[in-house]
Predict the structure of GNAT family N-acetyltransferase.
Amino acid sequence: MKGKFFPVEMRRKDGGSLLLREAEEGDAGAVLAYLNQVGGESDNLLFGRDEFAMPLEQERQWIASLRKQEKSILLLGICEDELSSVASVSAFDRRERIAHRAEVAVSVKKACWGLGIGRAVMEALIRFARGQGLEILQLDVRADNGRAIALYESLGFETLGRYRNFLKVQGEYFDAYCMNLYL
Ligand SMILES: CC(C)(COP(=O)(O)OP(=O)(O)OC[C@H]1O[C@@H](n2cnc3c(N)ncnc32)[C@H](O)[C@@H]1OP(=O)(O)O)[C@@H](O)C(=O)NCCC(=O)NCCS
């Protein structure tokens, strides 16, 4: 069923190609290296540079378990053989009462910002979520992350409220907005 959505090849704003495909167990090392790099490229994620301390085997097992879940996906964006984006939909499908909801997350390597990758990835994840019968996508975004907020609002996400002191980065607190997309 996931094969209906991915892999898919798209055009970036600079004319280059973007391949979106589901992560496989063999991608675990590249995904960890990617997350440890992008963690240091902005203060907008839940981890900083080299702070994504997941052992390789655990990452492999996590990818394997996500692959078996119909409503969840770890999605890779590949530009000219290079991992340029990692995004996910994580459904709460083990509990019936919240199985209609999922958490969505996206990041793009800084060198590739502004090429339309973030939008293409989010649009693809929304199509996927709709197709799998999900009803609500939720996320938390740092309140000063204007680039991401503009993207989410343009896709129809609405702000539920402000989460005061959501992040503490080197002793400094940052608020976040909790946002939902009702599919
Ligand atoms: C947020 C992020 C995913 C956007 O990815 P991207 O590939 O640069 O986004 P796109 O090029 O598709 O641009 C999408 C939208 O972002 C907004 N945007 C892009 N550049 C912007 C800028 N300089 N200022 C404000 N908004 C901007 C626009 O709304 C744009 O819409 P458009 O398609 O109509 O031009 C990326 O910047 C990122 O990974 N940041 C670090 C991690 C992060 O913040 N993740 C989100 C955590 S909640």
Remarks:
- Residues 125 and 144 are 24 Å apart (CA to CA).
